[in-house]
Design a protein that fits this description.
The structure is a single chain. It is built from 5 helices and no strands. The chain is mostly helical and 136 residues long.
Length: 136
């Protein structure tokens, strides 16, 4: 399928105000998903499944940030499975309020520490982090 997409690699402009229907062919939906990105997919294979940690690198020097939900990058050949999975995650996977509040306290403490380490260069207490949980 990716061979077909790469044969006529799409640009983002092709889809502005012209989204592909949700039930379009897998090839057309994949063309839209990779438009303007990379020509090689990261496939969740056996090697990745067995890895103890999956780390998606971002470049802090370029100020690149990972600012979307993980499932925005998932692609299912079946559009029905795609919708089901993404709606399930959206509607059912969330942390309890107590955990959210505890996390907010941790973030505040990390920001405070970052500010103390560099009061003039980091007055906002900015920091980078990423955590992927597997096998729990």
């Amino acid at each position: 399928m990716m061979k077909d997409v790469n044969a006529n690699f799409p640009e983002v402009q092709e889809f502005i105000n012209k989204p592909v229907p949700v039930n379009a062919s897998a090839t057309e939906r994949l063309r839209e998903a990779v438009a303007g990105r990379v020509k090689e997919l990261c496939v969740y294979d056996e090697k990745m499944q067995e890895a103890p940690v999956v780390h998606f690198m971002c470049d802090s020097k370029m100020r690149v940030r990972f600012l979307t939900h993980f499932y925005a990058f998932l692609f299912f050949e079946s559009w029905e499975q795609d919708l089901f999975t993404k709606r399930f995650v959206r509607d059912h996977l969330r942390y309890a309020d107590e955990i959210q509040c505890a996390a907010a306290r941790v973030v505040a403490a990390i920001r405070d520490r970052a500010r103390r380490r560099d009061p003039t260069g980091n007055s906002n207490g900015d920091f980078d982090s990423f955590h992927i949980r597997k096998g729990e």
